[in-house]
Amino acid sequence: MSTPVETKPRQRRRADTGVVLSERRRAERRLGWMLAGPAFVVMLMVTLYPILQAVWDSLFNFRLTAPGDKSFIGLKNYGVILTDSLFYRDLGVTSLITVITVVVELVLGFAMALIMHKALKSLRGFVRTAILVPYGIITVVSAFAWFYAFDINSGFINSWFDWLPGISEDTNWFAGTWTSLFVIMASEIWKTTPFISLLLLAGLAQVPDELTEAAEVDGATWWQRMQRVILPNMKAAIMVAVLFRALDAFRIFDNVYIMTNGAYGTEVLSLLAYRTSIGRLEIGLGSAISVLLFLCVLIICFVAIKLFKVDLAGNQGGK
C-alpha cells in the first residue's frame, strides 16, 4: 500500500505564477513593505499631486497672463507639440546626452569600482572619500565652475591645452553645438561617475571570491573571468546603475541652462518645458511638455528592465 507523499510544510504555491514561497520569504516581504511602506506613501503623496495637476493643466488653453480665459481644449496641446520640429530636436539632443554620458560613466565607474575594490584596506577609506568629492558638489556650483574654466575670457583650458590640435587661445567652446555639448557632457560625467562607481562597487562586493578563484585555477584569463563570472553576477547592480543614471541624465537642466541657455542647438526637453511655462507663461503647453517628458522617463524604465531581464525577486534569500 502506497503512502501519500508528504508535502513540505510552510510552503504554498501561488496559482498565478507557480512560484513556491517559503514562510521565510513571505516574512521578508512583509518586513520589506513595513519598512519601505511609509516612505513610499509619503513619496506618492508628494509626487502624485504635481503629476496629476500637470496632466490636468495640459488639457487646457491656459496662460498666466490671462487666467480668466482658461478653456478646455482636450489633447490639442499635445498635437501642437508633437507636430513641432523643435520638440523632436530637443528630444534628440536630450537622448544624445543621455546615451553618451551613461555609457562613459558606466565604463569609468566600473574602472573606479575595481580600483576601490582592490585597494588596500588601509587606503580604502581615503580612496572612496576622494572619489566622492565631485558628487558632493552642488550641480549649479559644478556647472558654473566648468563654465568659467572653458570660457574664452576667464577660462584656463585654452592656455593649458593649446598644444592639442584644434585648441588655441581664441577657441570659443560655447560658440558651437558640438563643443558646447562636449563641455556639458564632460561636466556631467565628471560629477556623476562617482555615483555609478559606488553602485557598481556594491555589485562587486556581491560576487563570491570562490567563483573568481575557481575560474582562475581553471586557467581563465582576466577577460574570461570578467565576462563569465563577474559581470553576470553584477547584472542587478549594473541595471540599477544604468536605470538611475539614465533617468537623471534625461532630465538634465542645470548644466545646459547655465552654460549655454539652450543656444546653438543645445536645448533639452527640461529647458523647453521651463521656457514654455516660465518664460512664455504658457502653462497648458508647458504642462504637456512635462507630461511627455515623464512618459519618456517611463519608457526608459520599461526598456531598461526588459533589456537586462533581472529577476530581483529570484535573488532573494529564503528559497
UniProtKB/TrEMBL annotation:
Please name the GO terms of the biological process aspect recorded for this protein, alphabetically.
transmembrane transport
One Pfam family matching this protein = BPD_transp_1
GO cellular component terms, A-Z: plasma membrane
Task: Check the record and name the InterPro entries matching this protein.
Answer: MetI-like, MetI-like_sf
Has UniProt tagged this entry with the keyword GTP-binding? no
Instruction: Give a yes or no for keyword Acetylation in this entry.
Output: no
Origin: domain of life: Bacteria
Organism of this sequence: Arthrobacter rhombi
Q: What name does the UniProt record give this protein?
A: Maltose/maltodextrin ABC transporter, permease protein MalF
Q: Which family does it belong to?
A: Belongs to the binding-protein-dependent transport system permease family.
Q: In what way does this protein cross or attach to the membrane?
A: Multi-pass membrane protein
Q: Which UniProt keywords apply?
A: Cell membrane, Membrane, Transmembrane, Transmembrane helix, Transport
| Subcellular location(s) of the protein | Cell membrane
Q: Which residues form the signal peptide?
A: none
Give TM segment ranges.
Answer: 31-52, 91-114, 126-149, 283-305
Instruction: Show where the ABC transmembrane type-1 domain sits.
Output: 91-304
